[in-house]
């Protein structure tokens, strides 16, 4: 027995042939394709009435006159009908097939993939002109409009998948006397390809409507929309409002969002409170040795330029020196060389993390060892990424962080998880009973968001300890010092007896400002702080920064831009990763109603 799958494949093959995608010669392909025929005429008659329960029933008669080739190619027709219409089954049934004289025609009915298919004929071939009169019954063919202004018979009278031309089409839609009294006078006919708004003529005679179209090309069809007064027929249960399945999931989804959202807010507030020690930020001119940039970055909550700041920190501390790389020749001339780092005095990398950074960067920490920053090196980038991660781990090990959860947020998170579980059950029921409802999509989005927030609410989070909060406020004081006017900075320095001073007893401002440069980089203020440093360098003629001798070559006045450029160069080295490219590569219209389906030869 031929299956519906084969029928669908036949229709698909016809479309491919129509597009010129078939293989072999045109004549041979045409003789081999069972969809290579035409329709002399396609006419339909719908008798629509209400059953004893008030629901719409259509008794359909389709008369299809097919012209087959004069050789053994076809055994009959295939006519497929969709089973569901707007969330409810039309229950296609009571099939019969006869010829133009009324003699019965053998046929089979198969159901598969949401369609019911009538396959006419038997194992014998048919040639020439043959007429098939197919009768069947459908339920719930009249739909209540969403705006409540009308009921509507909005139906595709032909399918839009046929690969054959139709020379002439006609339709008659007859409403029972009871329904004819409920007609509101609105009627439209649309013809052409799917979603076409081109109209065809439709005439009314009492409770009957007639339409005709001369010539339909392959994949063109006819759709009618006939209006009735609201409430003319009873809608099936699946189309009627169901608070338990339409509204309740939305309410439950909203409750899940609300509880999980409050839990997330409580969690965020807990994290925020743990960042505060005294709540007072005082300008600070120096950073303790135990807060190198690798530690300071997680404590203050920044992630930009962590490794570049650590490298500059090593340089201004005297452990290493930053040098200009040699210019390199290429096909398009010379270009600037990559920065070179050179070990000067590893003993000045006093913090354990500073020493670890030295070992991660240089092949050896012997004085004089040089390392050119690579332009493209995944291994170097991964090593530097591990160095930044080590800083975050060490910050916790030194007592600046711990992991805690909010008790109230945990309770709300657990409640939200329970609500999400209830929502999941409701969604399953909604999908089974109301597959065309829009509420499941909204509820799925709400449920996913609620689930994420609930998990965040019940989880432990990394928070500052009292010591960590104190250190964070100290670093915020450093940021404040960097950002204030120079007069205020000098006032701060003069007020502290512990400020680093020169042999004459005055504050060694340049030395202090150089040590703050790595922290300015963490705060994104390297350009501004570079300009401040440039002013101080110019105030001491002949001064050359030993940590970066190349500054003098670029010009002290351009120090801010030089440092910013150097930071960008460092950042590109420590964040490099290789990648591969990829690609992804009336208001009505024909084909917008129920019915339709598919048709073809067999």
From TrEMBL:
<feature type="transmembrane region" description="Helical">
    <location>
        <begin position="438"/>
        <end position="458"/>
    </location>
</feature>
<keyword id="KW-1133">Transmembrane helix</keyword>
<keyword id="KW-0812">Transmembrane</keyword>
<feature type="transmembrane region" description="Helical">
    <location>
        <begin position="411"/>
        <end position="432"/>
    </location>
</feature>
<dbReference type="Pfam" id="PF09972">
    <property type="entry name" value="DUF2207"/>
</dbReference>
<feature type="region of interest" description="Disordered">
    <location>
        <begin position="577"/>
        <end position="602"/>
    </location>
</feature>
<feature type="transmembrane region" description="Helical">
    <location>
        <begin position="247"/>
        <end position="268"/>
    </location>
</feature>
<dbReference type="InterPro" id="IPR048389">
    <property type="entry name" value="YciQ-like_C"/>
</dbReference>
<dbReference type="Pfam" id="PF20990">
    <property type="entry name" value="DUF2207_C"/>
</dbReference>
<feature type="signal peptide">
    <location>
        <begin position="1"/>
        <end position="29"/>
    </location>
</feature>
<feature type="domain" description="DUF2207">
    <location>
        <begin position="57"/>
        <end position="226"/>
    </location>
</feature>
<feature type="domain" description="Predicted membrane protein YciQ-like C-terminal">
    <location>
        <begin position="285"/>
        <end position="532"/>
    </location>
</feature>
<dbReference type="InterPro" id="IPR018702">
    <property type="entry name" value="DUF2207"/>
</dbReference>
<keyword id="KW-0732">Signal</keyword>
<feature type="compositionally biased region" description="Gly residues">
    <location>
        <begin position="582"/>
        <end position="602"/>
    </location>
</feature>
<protein>
    <submittedName>
        <fullName>DUF2207 domain-containing protein</fullName>
    </submittedName>
</protein>
<keyword id="KW-0472">Membrane</keyword>
């Amino acid at each position: 027995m031929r299956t519906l799958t084969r029928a669908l494949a036949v229709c698909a093959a016809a479309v491919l042939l129509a597009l010129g995608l078939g293989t072999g010669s045109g004549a041979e392909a045409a003789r081999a394709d069972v969809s290579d025929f035409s329709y002399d005429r396609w006419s339909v008659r719908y008798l629509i009435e209400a059953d004893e329960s008030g629901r719409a029933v259509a008794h359909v008669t389709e008369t299809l006159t097919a012209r087959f080739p004069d050789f053994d190619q076809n055994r009959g027709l295939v006519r497929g009908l969709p089973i569901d219409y707007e969330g409810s089954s039309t229950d296609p049934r009571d099939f019969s097939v006869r010829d133009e004289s009324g003699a019965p025609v053998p046929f089979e009915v198969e159901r598969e993939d949401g369609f019911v298919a009538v396959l006419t004929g038997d194992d014998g071939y048919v040639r020439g002109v043959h007429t098939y009169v197919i009768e069947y019954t459908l339920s719930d063919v009249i739909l209540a409009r969403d705006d409540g202004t009308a009921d509507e018979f909005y139906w595709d009278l032909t399918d839009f998948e046929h690969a054959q031309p139709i020379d002439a089409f006609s339709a008659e839609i007859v409403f029972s006397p009871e329904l004819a009294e409920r007609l509101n006078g609105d009627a439209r006919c649309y013809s052409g390809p799917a979603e076409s708004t081109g109209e065809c003529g439709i005439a009314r005679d009492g409770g009957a409507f007639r339409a005709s179209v001369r010539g339909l090309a392959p994949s063109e069809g006819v759709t009618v929309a006939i209006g009735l007064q609201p409430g003319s027929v009873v809608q099936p249960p699946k189309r009627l409002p169901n608070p338990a399945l339409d509204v309740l999931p939305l309410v439950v989804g909203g409750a899940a969002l609300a509880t999980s959202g409050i839990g997330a807010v409580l969690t965020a507030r807990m994290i925020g409170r743990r960042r505060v020690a005294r709540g007072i930020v005082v300008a600070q001119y120096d950073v303790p040795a135990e807060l190198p940039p690798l530690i300071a970055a997680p404590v203050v909550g920044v992630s930009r330029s962590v490794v570049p700041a650590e490298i500059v920190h090593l340089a201004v501390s005297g452990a290493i020196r930053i040098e200009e790389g040699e210019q390199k020749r290429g096909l398009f001339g010379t270009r600037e060389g990559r920065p070179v780092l050179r070990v000067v005095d590893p003993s000045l990398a006093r913090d354990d993390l500073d020493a670890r950074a030295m070992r991660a960067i240089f092949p050896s920490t012997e004085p004089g060892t040089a390392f050119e920053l690579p332009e493209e090196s995944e291994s170097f980038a991964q090593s530097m990424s591990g160095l930044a991660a080590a800083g975050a781990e060490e910050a916790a090990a030194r007592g600046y962080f711990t992991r805690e959860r909010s008790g109230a947020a945990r309770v709300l998170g657990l409640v939200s998880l329970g609500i999400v579980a209830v929502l999941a059950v409701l969604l399953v029921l909604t999908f089974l009973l109301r597959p065309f409802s829009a509420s499941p999509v909204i509820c799925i989005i709400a449920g996913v968001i609620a689930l994420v927030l609930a998990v965040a609410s019940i989880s432990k989070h990394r928070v500052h300890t009292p010591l960590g909060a104190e250190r964070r406020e100290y670093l915020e004081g450093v940021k404040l010092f960097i950002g204030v006017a120079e007069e205020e900075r000098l006032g701060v320095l003069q007020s502290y007896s512990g400020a680093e001073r020169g042999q004459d007893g005055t504050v060694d401002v340049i030395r202090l400002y150089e040590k703050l440069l790595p922290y300015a980089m963490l705060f994104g203020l390297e350009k501004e702080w570079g300009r401040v440093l440039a002013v101080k360098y110019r105030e001491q003629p002949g001064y050359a920064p030993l940590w970066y001798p190349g500054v003098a070559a670029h010009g002290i006045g351009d120090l801010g831009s030089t440092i910013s450029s150097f930071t960008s160069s460092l950042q590109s080295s420590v964040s490099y990763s290789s990648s591969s490219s990829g690609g992804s590569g009336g208001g009505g219209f024909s084909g917008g109603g129920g019915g339709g389906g598919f048709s073809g030869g067999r």
